[in-house]
Known about the structure:
The protein is an alpha+beta fold.
Amino acid sequence: MNSRTAAESVAPTPGVESKNELAVLLDEPAALPWYRRPALWGGVAGLAIAAGALWWWQQRQAADAAPSYTTQAAVRGNLTLTVTANGTLQPTRSISIGSELSGTVTKVNVDVNDKIRKGQVLVELDTAKLRDQILRSRASLAESIAKVAQTVATEKEAAANLARLEEVARISGGKVPSKAELDTGRATLDRAIADEASARASVDDARAALSTDETNLSKASITAPADGVVLTRNVDPGNAVAASLQAVTLFTVAEDLKQLRLWVYVDEADVGSVTVGQEATFTVSAYPNRNFPARVTRVGYGSTITDNVVTYLTYLDVDNGDLSLRPGMTATATITATQRKNVLLVPNSALRFAPTDAAAAAKPAASGGIVASLTPRMPPRGGTRSPAAAGASTAAARQVWVLRDGKAVPLPVTPGISDGRMTEIIGGELQAGMLVITDQKAMAAK
Length: 446
């Protein structure tokens, strides 16, 4: 019974045997097991590649959707607030030398750039007329002196006549001469005394006229009032000088070129930061790579309006010991108004930065993938919440955004002075070394 059952169990199935015989007759290969079939494994590999490509695409989409920021570290350093103004170099004391007299120039003894000494003769005028006037004045003086002598003699004569008349009257007991004759004698003496006084006054007048003419003669030789250097010369031999209305300027002299003064015009928006004693530097076109030191010595109260711009004249003293600078040069001055040392600094762009709405809109897409983006979402409750720093800011405080774990986080700060590029932070939670966000890069177009 058991042997039959075993024989039946190993006996070939009629249908399978016929198929094998048919395959042998047709010379076909035998069927492979399922786990050795290439098509099956090829399909599995294709599915794996498709899944990997889908995962890579989702990661790429998430990376593109995430915002990218430009950052810069907050650092400690020095900050200098400066004021820039333009102006020209001038001598500390400039002298205009002219002529009080009219006449013809006969000789010019100096030229531009010549060094002069006090009392040195610079220009000589023709003195012929002046000498003739002196001779005339001397003659008038001599005439006045002679007139004095004449009046003195007349006075003596009148006094003697009056004395004789009075003696006769005394001897005759007043009978002779008559009272009229005595009065005439007395009047004649008074006139003689007055004539003498007038003659002496004429002498003083003649002497004054002579002194004036001699002074004019001395002024015909124009001398230097002080030591200095000739800057300009406006006269040549043979020129006629007419000084009837005002003194004609013949030379301009700088008393000392080793000390110059820079005249700059400070804008009204900056004048409040400029005070006497502040240090400054300036440059001129002749030496573009050299900074010259200066110091503020005066800030004008009177304003100057040019093209509707209000400015204030400010003086800066300049040491020109090497005589490299010259009066009239145009200069650009940088005045050091305020200095801060070892303070916390951030770029000005960090105070102006604020994240864009595109970055916030990209966050859900970056975290969920395709399925999450296609799934409808419920609207958020309570609306959009603003960061805490936005409500903590005051009129004097702002905020900066720092990068933490790839995300923009606001921090409240209190800014101080700014030089136009960096700003001092005098309060807040910002620390040195933190990465402050200065810009947000634009996302690539899909």
